[in-house]
Write the C-alpha cells for this entry.
Amino acid sequence: VQLQASGGGLVQPGGSLRLSCATSRSIFSFYIMDWYRQAPGKQRELVATITRASTTNYADSVKGRFTISRDNAKNTVYLQMNSLKPEDTAVYYCRFYDGGEYWGQGTRVTVSS
C-alpha cells in the first residue's frame, strides 16, 4: 500500500494549510488513519486520528485549530490546519492502519514570518 502525502509549504503565523494523504486502496479497508509530525530534534508525535467510523481525536496542542477529515470517493484523508504557529513547524506524516501500518513519505510544513 502506498500513501502519497502532499500540501506542505511555507506559511506565515496565523495562516492555513491543508495536507492530503491519498491511497490507491479504499480507505474503508483501514481501521485508523492518522497524521503524525516530527519537529527538528524531537520525537514523532501523534497529531490527529480518524477511524473507520469517522471518530476523530486530536493532540491537545492542535485542538480547535486542526481538523482531520476523509473523502471516501477520493480515498484521501485531509488535515486542515488553521491558526498555524511557529511551533507547528515539522514534517507531517500520514499513517494508515489495517493490522499492518503504512506511512506516507512526509510533507514539510514551515510556519515563519
User: Anything to note?
Assistant: The CA atoms of residues 33 and 96 lie 4 Å apart. The mean pLDDT is 96. The first strand starts at residue 3 and ends at 6. The two ends are 37 Å apart (CA to CA).
